[in-house]
Design brief:
The protein is mainly beta. Among the domains are: 24-139 and 419-440, no CATH class; 318-414, Thrombin, subunit H. The chain has 2 helices and 34 strands. It has helices at 3-19, 167-171; strands spanning 53-58, 67-69, 72-79, 97-107, 113-123, 136-138, 141-145, 150-155, 161-166, 185-187, 190-197, 200-206, 212-216, 228-232, 235-241, 245-249, 256-261, 274-276, 279-284, 288-294, 301-306, 321-323, 326-330, 336-340, 346-350, 365-370, 373-378, 382-389, 392-400, 406-408, 411-413, 419-421, 424-428, 432-437. It has a 4-stranded antiparallel β-sheet with strand order 1-34-33-32, with no helix packed on it. The longest helix has 17 residues, at 3-19. The two termini are 35 Å apart. The relative contact order is 0.13. The model is unreliable at 1-21 (pLDDT under 50).
């Protein structure tokens, strides 16, 4: 073989290897924070004998989903001697719950622990099972945010702390009743966080040093919404829904572009507003939702409609997805609903992929789109493969991945968004994290 042919063959091999590389899941809701997994080579339906379990590793309490990047799994948990099930009520405990928050790094192929970082932490929140935020991985750094506002930047391969912040001490933030939930967002050189201090609802840090770059906005409470970025009117806009209004700011400076009032019950601004073309949707508990039309000439928004008791959708624990003119999401009573985005008209609903039995307060399932199908992780611990359309719900397969170990409103639940990476699903409860293969 001559040199030219050998070089061509080598190039084909390299390009083929690159094209076969499995997608990572480096942050909340995936690579682009949109609940879309573009992986190929997956099962068309689950086998009769069940999905192949690759590994299971013991962990402790937490709602924080895992992140998977560069062959490693990052997940947070909380170790405490308290009976957290008895404390799983919608109010703060009478006394602080003492324990230890941990950041764990595992081998994605084996589940073996590669490193661990832990620090003492006392919880003053309702449902004190553990951390809420999925780690954010970018390059060789991983960022974690604990329930009480402890922000860390680690060397992703070694677990060395590179810098840290304490939102309560550094910004005077008060922990919301259900803890800090705003998954940190990397944008260029910035790490953007929902902090909640005076004139510091949003803070941008230098992602390498932790230096404050800007702070912006003020609100009575920070809410639970993660920051997200959209593009409209030719501008990149950073969005955050606080308990009173949806805000759009310049991500480079924090300067306010626009805001629109939207006040959910109990300050539960949770979902990240979803964009579809010129439209932007947000909604939450208390029959509070809005569809906005984003202006084209300059950053701005106008109300198309506001929801009511008999239309639209009001998510609690999960952010809905939009496909074309249809929005799919889990409503507060626990139904998976489809609505017409432009009118708010309800098209159908089903409890089959959520609670499986009917109405349940804050019934939950997490939706991830893969090609023309959806992977749905139910609070019952089942992973479901289904097709969703404007005409209805079509279930293809389901399998129970793990037991629901948490408690909510008198029932057992698992309220943690799984990760999808390396043609696998990674899911956790308060006892273990598991990895099942989804590869053909």
């Amino acid at each position: 073989m001559n040199v030219r042919k050998w070089m061509c063959l080598a190039l084909v091999v390299v390009l083929s290897a690159g094209s076969l590389r499995a997608d990572d899941w480096p942050q909340w809701m995936g690579p682009n924070r949109d609940g879309v997994w573009n992986e190929t080579g997956l099962l068309e339906r689950f086998p009769a004998e069940g999905l192949k379990l690759l590994w299971r590793t013991p962990i402790r309490g937490g709602y924080a989903g895992p992140a998977v990047a560069a062959g490693r799994v990052y997940v947070m948990d909380f170790v405490s001697s308290a009976d957290l099930k008895k404390l799983a009520v919608p109010s703060r405990p009478e006394e602080a719950v003492k324990g230890t928050e941990r950041v764990l790094c595992l081998d994605a192929r084996t589940g073996k622990q590669l490193w661990k970082y832990e620090y003492p932490c006392s919880y003053t929140v309702s449902y004190p099972a553990g951390p809420r935020c999925t780690p954010t991985v970018q390059g060789n750094k991983v960022y974690t945010l604990g329930t009480e506002g402890n922000l860390f930047c680690f060397d992703a391969s070694r677990g060395t702390v590179l810098w840290s912040k304490d939102f309560q001490k550094d910004y005077g933030s008060k922990t919301p009743i259900w803890g800090f939930c705003g998954h940190p967002l990397v944008d260029g050189q910035k790490l953007i966080c929902t902090v909640g201090g005076k004139n510091a609802l949003l803070v941008a840090f230098d992602k390498d040093t932790g230096k404050e770059l800007w702070k912006s906005l003020d609100a009575e409470e920070p809410g639970y919404c993660p920051p997200s970025i959209i593009t409209a009117a030719g501008k990149r806009q950073l969005l955050l829904w606080d308990p009173e209004k949806i805000n759009s700011v310049d991500p480079e400076t924090g300067q306010l572009y626009w805001s629109v009032e939207l006040k959910p019950a109990y300050a539960m601004s949770i979902m990240a507003p979803r964009q579809q073309g010129e439209y932007l949707f947000a909604g939450g508990i208390g029959f509070k939702s809005v569809l906005l039309r984003l202006t084209a000439d300059k950053p701005g928004a106008e109300v198309v409609y506001r929801g009511g008791r008999n239309n639209s959708i009001y998510p609690v624990n999960s952010t809905p997805l939009i496909e074309g003119d249809t929005l799919y999401g889990v409503d507060q009573p626990g139904a998976l609903r489809a609505i017409d985005l432009k009118t708010g008209k309800r098209l159908w609903e089903t409890y089959q992929p959520t609670t499986g039995t009917g109405q349940a307060n804050s019934g939950t399932a997490f939706l991830v789109k893969n090609g023309d199908r959806y992977l749905i992780f139910a609070e019952t611990g089942h992973l479901i493969l289904a097709k969703l359309s404007r005409t209805g719900y079509e279930e293809i397969s389901r399998q129970k991945l793990l037991e629901p170990t948490g408690t909510a409103f008198g029932r057992s639940v698992v309220w943690s968004h799984p990760a999808f990476a390396e043609r696998c699903v990674f899911a956790r409860n308060d006892r273990e994290i598991v990895c099942y293969s989804l590869a053909k």
